[in-house]
Each structure stands twice: as C-alpha cells, then as structure tokens.
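Lecture 7 notes: from sequence to structure.
We start with the chain below.
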Amino acid sequence: MENSDNEVDLLPLWSWQTPDFSLIRGTVDHGRSIFKKEHSGFEKSCKELSERLEIDDDQFIWCFTYPKEQWQGRERWELEVPKHRVLAYTCNVAWHWILAHNGNDDVPCNIPLKFERIWFKIANTKRNECKKKFTDDWRKKTTEQLWNVLFLDDDALFLDKVYGDCTDVLLRHPVEDKWVKHPRADPKQ
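Predicted structure tokens for the same chain:
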C-alpha cells in the first residue's frame, strides 16, 4: 500500500515559471522552455527522457532542490512534495551533456557549487585545470553512459536521491495544489 502524503518525508523544491504558466493546471509546452532556445538537442532529449521514464507523454516539470536565484521574468514556485511522488532525481550536469550530445553543442555546463567552493580554495592556475578536467571528463562520456538508469555509475542522469545543488527533480504535471507553498494563489484562477 502506498504511503499517504501525510505519512512521509516532504522534499522542498523550487521551480521558476513564466507568469502565464501554472504548475497546478493546464499542460506543459516544452517548446516554450528557455532550454529549447539554448540547446538544439532539447526536443530529442525530452522525447528520450519520456521513453526512459516509461511515461506516455511529456507532462513533467523540472524543479530545483535549492532556492536558486530569481530568473528574469519568472515567478518562483515553492513546493513541498512527498518523496514517494518524485518522478525522478536527476544529475543536472549529466542532463546538460545529454542535451549537448544530442544537439552537437559543445558549450561547457555550469560547475556545481560544491566543486566551485572547493576549487576556490586552491591557486587560480589549479582551479582552471580542475574546471577543464571536469568539463573534459563529462564531454567525453557517451550519451548512453550519461543515460545509465541502473545507478551503477555516479555520473549517470538518474540518481537515487538528492546529492546537493547538482540534483534536479522531475515531477508529473500538474502538481497537487496542496504541495504549493508559494505562490498560494494560482495566477490563472
């Protein structure tokens, strides 16, 4: 028997959306995503993501596991979601390189904060070496290595839990109203 939402740990999550999009109603149009504009492999990657998650549609949203800085023109949604209702935990670095491989893009990704903090403490020349090695190691992985869904590799897209700021969470859309902590009023009511 599945746990009720009142009997489980809640996971705090954040999502930035345009003011005309609701997390609790409507449908997701991934074509409006800023990532589609930035990555030519976005559409192919989302389709493959739906297949690997074994869902028949692309009605899912990405959430951050920390309160990321505000995105221009976006509204912050703060959620508390029962952990058993998470569709997937994902490595945002692996997702970046899946997008890059599928779009033949070679844009380095943002380095997770935990590495930036460590590297900040070392000499500038070593810091640049660390960043280059990090990027090169991820760039050379095959798309299949990045998709590894068996949790056998720490560098795979799918994770078994939150591993700091480099973990994003996928939820089915629409989310339940009771999970929303902010904004309390839905802009489309």
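Points to note: The two ends are 34 Å apart (CA to CA). The longest strand covers residues 10-17.
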